[in-house]
Write a structure and sequence with these properties.
mainly alpha, 0% strand, homotetramer, DNA-binding, Tetracycline Repressor, domain 2, Arc Repressor Mutant, subunit A, 210 residues
Chain lengths: 210, 210, 210, 210
DNA sequence: TACTAACCGAGACGGTACGTCCCGTCTTGAG
DNA sequence: CTCAAGACGGGACGTACCGTCTCGGTTAGTA
């Protein structure tokens, strides 16, 4: 309690409030991540930068990737919402445009790519990304699509989960395997094709006619 | 021991043919990769296992990832082909089924995922994957789609590159972000929806009618 | 398990008698020491093994070494005695043989060596060893020697403290710096030489004659 | 690259001559040891102070203690010699006085004590101390005693190794277990008693008479 | 054919991160 | 309100890897 204040060199031994430490660790991880990318988020550097000890960090996060993931999610607590105006194409287009915007304009694109990339060899990170990021968004989209089915905008037999992979998955694909550009035009075309299909009318009839 | 000095310990003196060394390095990298995954492919271990020196390996590959990529491509020289029977849906479905098969049944799935994952933080690997793997396959698919346009099976204004992302990209998405299963059923539904669209007939007319 | 919550997990709440806790701590320390040597006696492990908290242990012992020392002394409460039959050589020989026996046959040898060793860099342990172990034995020996002087078996001007170092100290030397064997033969020779000296009779006369 | 010299920040990567590195490591270890005692000699600190990497240090020394030992021996390359003037008592007294001097006056006493102490729980250090320090000195003393036997100054049946333990061992005992002072008076008394024995003349006759 | 010069692979080096263990201090929550 | 349970900062351990650089043996070029 420092009755006689003034000690300050010897400070910082012993226990500090957990919440305080956690916040500092996450802040340090976020700073490193935004500055130098995911590989810069090591337990070692985070410990030094945050003033926390490695022991403490190991107690709370299973891997540097998982720590980075939480740091990202905490600093990017975007409202999870999928506005429903009743106009399927418009709503989805708006969502996808925003998503492409996020991946390309802000610094988030690289970080998300690195998170997903690292998750391929880090089970804990993979679980964290799925639980706190991709899965909630998938569920939200599917709920919206269920409404669209009720409104008669989507076929009754449409595979709603598949739509997510065709729309957002295609964007992730262009993010992670950049053989083709990821932009608004792509988003718009994606929405259209997913809804109306790429087949010519004659071939379409053939496919459905059977 | 070593009564006749140099019988086999000294074997490795003098310079060996570059091609021979390269082959051994790639073989060692492949063995490590299949046994313990991509993180096991380090210059250090490959050097020990292959008998080559680190210096040599550094001369030829810019990063462990790039070495692993080449090791994978060399040991998986699948024929690049896209059989064209004239039946668009069937041809694409066959391709996608084979692709899903590759990603799920063989050990390739994990390795491809790890390669793409690591490529997010390894420019050299990213370039190698694109140049030797994804890009050639994208071009092949687009060429096929161009034939399908000529045959009147795809709309004239269809974005052919986008189709690749919707079909293969969706598969990669389920591989890299495993929130939903990647199987034959998914492949089939993917083909159908990409060609005919998910919109109900009424909403489809609305979208196209305008 | 735990149908009625807290049946035995919560057992350790409320304060337990200090004596009981002390005993458990010492028992845990002794167990660790005999099993894995002195370095295994850490506050951390003793706390876990004994169920006591580190705070408690810190309150009673200044260092792991001091704790280990007490654990050893408590479990080895050998009667402090120096039987006096009146026969100096026999009495001392018996004592020394028993001492060598202790150091070599039982597991005590290693532990005593480690205690003295660690005491070189642990003031508290050094003090504990001296106070509870070496010093009492030194005093006992000196008292016996004083009797021997009175009986006319030792020279009046003999340095009695020095005799302790020559007898027991030599044994400690062979324990701590094992360049030569520590056995009964050594003990016997030690006693003889300490009493009669190593000089030849002529050289002895020369030395004393002056 | 770096055709134009002058870079100096990037220096110190890659390999440096082994001898140079070894010397710097030993110097750093010695400095730490003399300044703060043996516990200050950790691989970590030595690495930082010497500029060498931990990997390198681990390659050459099995434990911090062994490193410290070598650092001590290197900086204290005292001539190994045992001057033989033909006067046994004088020669031994001179040696012992010098030894006591070393242990008490210079800073060596504490270091030797800590080395021997740590050796109790460090096999590698124990071996190093024996091989490079105690054993050579023991042999030297025994050689001298053999000459004294030839000269008729020591009894023919004297156990020469035992004399070492009685003389130097007793000193080590007072160093390591400081229950009694270690000084010149002690050294002198030690020499005398070891040669002529502590028994009174009557008791001595009794002992020998048998 | 001997003899030297250039080259190149084997592997030692500095740097950095990993994950673990321990010490000594301090917050916190159970009694 | 007290005190032990145990979380915290600090720091060392021993290992693995990266990327750089020295060293010494081989080969090729000279006498």
């Amino acid at each position: 309690m420092e009755t006689h204040a003034g000690t300050e060199a010897k400070q910082r031994r012993g226990r500090r409030p957990a919440a305080e430490v956690r916040a500092e660790v996450l802040a340090a991880a976020a700073a490193l991540m935004y500055a130098d990318g995911l590989p810069a988020v090591t337990f070692e550097r985070v410990a030094v930068r945050s003033g926390a000890s490695k022991t403490t960090i190991y107690k709370w996060w299973p891997s540097p990737g998982a720590l980075a993931a939480e740091a990202y999610f905490v600093t990017n607590k975007t409202e999870l919402q999928f506005p429903d105006t009743g106009d399927l194409a418009n709503d989805v287009r708006a969502q996808l445009r925003a998503f492409v915007q996020l991946l390309t304009q802000s610094g988030s694109g690289r970080i998300i790519a690195e998170l997903i990339g690292t998750a391929q060899t880090d089970q804990d990170l993979s679980a964290a990304v799925s639980k706190h990021y991709t899965m909630p968004r998938r569920i939200l989209a599917i709920r919206y699509f269920q409404q669209a089915v009720k409104r008669g905008q989507l076929r009754d037999d449409a595979d709603l989960g598949l739509l997510v992979d065709q729309l957002w998955g295609a964007c992730y694909n262009r993010l992670l395997i950049p053989d083709a550009p990821l932009d608004q035009k792509f988003a718009d075309a994606l929405v259209k094709n997913t809804l109306v299909g790429a087949a010519s009318s004659t071939y379409r009839s053939l496919l459905l006619g059977t």
